[in-house]
Design goal:
It is a single chain. The protein is mainly β. The protein has two domains: 93 residues, Immunoglobulin-like (Sandwich); 511 residues, 8 Propeller (Methanol Dehydrogenase, Chain A). The protein is built from three helices and 55 strands. The chain has a five-stranded mixed β-sheet, with no helix packed on it. A hairpin with a 3-residue loop joins β7 and β8.
Length: 626
């Protein structure tokens, strides 16, 4: 009897030590990978559990429900999570069978449909207010960093675009990031890094026919700064029409044939799922307008495909694609142009062309890459640079001005509805202090006397708050016709010294306006009852070369301000309450997070828990570390 009891005791002790599976272990642990992951409605997330100290498997649960359900999402016995059709954050748990040991991870179900145009919308205010993943609490070097990268064939100056839940033929659903390069390529890449090769790629060069990008050496004699990149192809940010699954792209090419070089701009309409041309595209961009100004012949001015550069992002408004041009290097008989293209009856057709200075010179539309803006009524806004101005005396020339434009839906005519020109336009022209260096930010409706406002600025460093219902025209005695101006708010230009001022559009979020001037620090102003604070209420501490601020937030909470310091190739993130101290920078852990390639006057795209940054050689993708 004693011998039997002793044998039972030894067996019991062995079971306790060995565990239910009979594997010797002092400690049982389990770890889940990934620890954090965003997923959209058509996506899925594969979790794995690594168990030590036991050969047992795990039981998976979502928000405490074994296997989950249709409300919180389901998870299989192999750890495959399928999300519900509702945005939210959920806890994934893996519990070791026969033990109380478990581990948890976070899955964020997010479904921002996409970033279809520059600066998150036609208002160009740079804010994504549907970001539930990234917050000031988790954007730091310990939990946030570079996840993966894609090699590209050329420099990226266009902002990456994004479209969720795209059904790619024979490849299923993907979240897609679209990237255009100066080598005339458009890439459709899996935005979540689920495959290393492009979903599709198209290139507009054709070596067999002598068609390629324009080498920077072609501009070198009059544009030395152009030599910092080797070629010019796609410079303007494309635009996506989600209703027709079309991405519109403008490209520059040259064709060398028989020793003769001919230059072209072309507009392409590509299927977002395949890259195939649509609407009988591409079309060659050509235009002419009556005028006696520089470069005219027989009372007509023609669009010059060599001198003109389409730098502003494309705008899609009411089914029409708008683009605008200036020059490279202020060279030659260039003018500012606005061109409109639609797709009636399945073909791309030019529906309008407007010339900024038909009887004068220049008046280029640069805006440092910011696209023409449009309000909810379809009115179009943009600014022009140095050039002839005589609109105040009945002329047709609009140099150094902010323009509101509309298009006649029957005739297609583009016409100026109203404008604003600073009273010191002649001085601005003399000193090369363009008003056209900054895009126009259209603000949400405000309380107060002026509900419909826009923000403009230029090299002089003055911020103009404009009434979109009455831009005010020109007043030689001052700018009293506009609601407000902040003279010297941004570091301005001084004769004989380096050029400064406002070189990018202002960003807006929740009553705050963010402006990053050239050789200045990031400055934040409040907007209350339709008026800006006279001074910045928050300032950064780092001087940069006018990056475009990008904001991610969950409605009116958890705002993160993102800045791509292109001259140093650094990505920075700030809590919106403090611009002086960054919460994250790619230089904090450069071995892991440094950009692959150099940044070049582009802006990051922040959507669905990821940050996309184009460089001279790559697309780098950042997010919560797995």
């Amino acid at each position: 009897m004693n011998r039997i009891m002793k044998r039972i005791s030894v067996l019991s002790l062995a079971l306790i030590v060995l565990g239910s599976a009979g594997v010797l272990s002092a400690t049982v642990t389990v770890a889940i990978h990934p620890a954090n992951i965003p997923v959209t409605f058509t996506g899925r997330a594969q979790f794995t559990a690594t168990v030590t100290g036991s050969s047992n498997g795990v039981v998976w649960a979502v928000d405490g429900l074994i296997g989950g359900n249709s409300t919180v999402g389901t998870i299989s016995t192999s750890g495959l999570y399928l999300p519900p059709a509702k945005v939210g954050a959920h806890t994934i748990a893996a519990k070791v069978i026969g033990s109380s040991v478990k581990s948890t991870a976070k899955v964020f179900v997010t479904n921002n449909a996409g970033v279809f145009t520059y600066a998150n919308g036609n208002q160009r205010i740079g804010a994504n207010t549907s970001e539930i993943v990234l917050t000031p609490a988790n954007v730091n070097q310990n939990t946030f960093g570079k996840l993966f990268t894609y090699a590209l064939d050329g420099n990226v100056r266009a902002q990456p675009l994004y479209m969720a839940n795209v059904l790619i033929p024979n490849q299923g659903y993907h979240n897609v990031v679209y990237v255009a390069t100066e080598h005339n390529s458009v890439y459709a890449l899996d935005a979540d890094g689920l495959q290393t090769t492009p979903l599709w790629q198209i290139n507009f060069n054709n070596a067999a026919e002598g068609i390629g990008t324009i080498p920077s050496s072609a501009f070198g004699s009059f544009c030395p700064y152009c030599l910092h990149q080797t070629e010019f192809g796609i410079t303007a940010t494309p635009v996506i029409d989600p209703t027709t699954n079309t991405i519109y792209v403008e490209a520059r090419t040259q064709q060398v044939s028989g020793g003769v070089t001919t230059y072209f701009h072309t507009l392409h309409a590509l299927d977002v799922t395949t890259g195939d041309e649509k609407f009988n595209g591409p079309v060659v961009i050509q235009a002419s307008a009556p005028g006696t100004g520089e470069g005219s012949s027989g009372g007509v001015i023609a669009f010059d495909p060599f001198l003109e550069m389409i730098r502003p992002a494309l705008l899609l408004s009411n089914g029409v694609v708008y683009m605008a041009s200036a020059s490279l290097g202020d060279y030659g008989n260039y003018h500012g142009w606005v061109l409109a293209y639609g797709a009636p009856s399945g073909t791309l057709e030019q529906t309008g062309a407007w010339l900024a200075t038909p009887n004068g010179e220049q008046g280029g539309i640069w805006q440092n890459g910011a696209g023409l803006s449009a309000d909810t009524d379809g009115e179009i806004y943009f600014s022009t640079g140095n050039g002839t101005f005589d609109a105040n005396t009945g002329g047709l020339d609009y140099g150094e001005s902010v323009i509101q434009m509309s298009q006649n839906t029957v005739s297609g005519t583009l016409s100026v509805d109203q404008y604003f020109t600073p009273y010191d336009q002649a001085k601005l022209n003399t000193y090369d202090w363009d008003v056209g260096t900054a895009g126009i930010s259209i603000l949400p409706d405000q309380p107060g006397t002026y509900p419909h406002l826009a923000i403009a600025g230029g090299k002089e460093g003055t911020v103009y708050l404009l009434n979109r219902d009455a831009l005010g025209g020109y007043n030689a005695n001052g700018n009293g016709q506009i609601p407000q101006q902040l003279v010297g708010a941004i570091l301005g230009s001084i004769p004989g010294q380096s050029v400064n001022g406002v070189w990018n559009e202002a960003a807006y979020w929740n009553g705050f306006v963010y402006i990053f001037g050239l050789h200045d620090v990031l400055k934040v102003f409040t907007l209350t009852d339709g008026k800006l604070s006279k001074r910045a209420v928050n300032k950064g501490s780092a001087t940069m070369n006018a990056p475009a601020p990008v904001i991610s937030a969950n409605g009116n909470t958890n705002a993160v301000v993102w800045v791509l310091q292109w001259e140093s190739s650094l990505l920075h993130a700030y809590n919106h309450t403090n611009m002086a101290t960054e919460i994250y920078g790619t230089d904090q852990n450069p071995t892991r997070d440094a950009l692959d390639g150099a940044a070049d006057k582009t802006a990051p795209t922040v959507v669905n828990g990821r940050v996309y940054v184009g460089t001279t050689t790559n697309l780098d993708v950042y997010g919560l570390l797995p």
